[in-house]
Specification:
The chain is 31% helix and 29% strand. It has 247 residues and is an alpha/beta fold. It has a six-stranded mixed beta sheet with strand order 6-9-10-3-11-12, sandwiched between helices. A four-stranded antiparallel beta sheet has the order 2-1-4-5, covered by helices on one side. Helix 3 packs parallel to helix 6, helix 4 crosses helix 6 and helix 6 packs parallel to helix 7.
């Protein structure tokens, strides 16, 4: 079953198509990856699926569990079970870490909150009373945001550059959280420039100039990290030197 289906999606800014006649299907319960060069439209696609302000005036349609999403705001889509992990997580002045995670948690008990902390490699007693503000590093906020998603247990999780700001030692915690969400029957979309993150997926799409150019198993799509490309009809054909750096 396809939990998410995108048909002929086109999104324009200032008369320029950022997404152009894009079609893809996301199979329920599968970890997917979306790769592509910088400026390909990956984060724009994530924002459009989530329904963020400025990304709702699109042509085509997005279906989530066969329900059209056009016209629905971000909170309405969140209530349906869609969530987005930001490349650069927001700060919330005056809000404690434990409050932030509990607010989104499916189960509000302390044990569930502590479990979410543990899965992403954060010590509950060290962080629960800290504020989600500039006192936290980007990597800390990234893991705290992921802990909130773990506690939430949504149906569809979109993670935009999940390893951004994360040190190598903490990467295993990010992968553990992805595995945990998968085991809890979440469908996951990983938007990434990282081969290691791509390896966590089962199926992948190659996005270029707002259009899907190729799709298939990770063993096929990972070739683009190795400097290999396919004939591309677009004017802004990425240089081979950029494929593998900006994918």
């Amino acid at each position: 079953m396809d939990i998410l289906k995108i048909e002929n999606l086109t999104l324009s800014f200032n008369g320029k198509n950022i997404l152009s006649n894009l079609n893809l299907k996301i199979t329920e319960g599968i970890i997917h990856a979306i790769i592509g060069p910088n400026g390909a439209g990956k984060s724009t696609l994530a924002s459009t699926i989530m329904g963020l302000e400025g990304f709702r005036n699109f042509e085509g349609e997005i279906y989530f569990k066969n329900q059209p999403l056009k016209g629905l705001g971000v909170y309405e889509r969140a209530r349906l079970g869609i969530t987005l992990g930001w490349q650069e997580p927001a700060r919330y002045e005056g809000l404690k870490v434990s409050q932030f995670i509990k607010a989104s948690s499916k189960n509000k008990d302390k044990d569930s909150i502590i479990e979410a902390f543990n899965i992403v490699g954060i010590d509950y007693y060290e962080y629960h009373s800290r504020a989600v503000d500039k006192s936290l590093s980007g990597g800390e906020r990234k893991k705290i945001e992921l802990a909130s998603i773990v506690a939430m247990q949504p149906s569809l999780v979109i993670l935009d550059e999940p390893d951004s700001g994360i040190d190598i030692a903490s990467l295993k915690n990010i992968f553990a959280a992805i595995k945990y969400l998968h085991e809890k029957d979440a469908t996951i979309i990983l938007i990434t420039h990282s081969l290691e993150v791509l390896k966590q997926a089962e199926f992948a799409y190659l996005l270029c100039n707002g259009t899907i150019l190729d799709e298939g198993k990770v063993s096929k799509i990972r070739k683009y990290f190795e400097g290999k490309c396919m004939p591309c009809p677009h004017k802004n054909i990425p240089l081979l030197s950029e494929i593998g750096k900006g994918v």
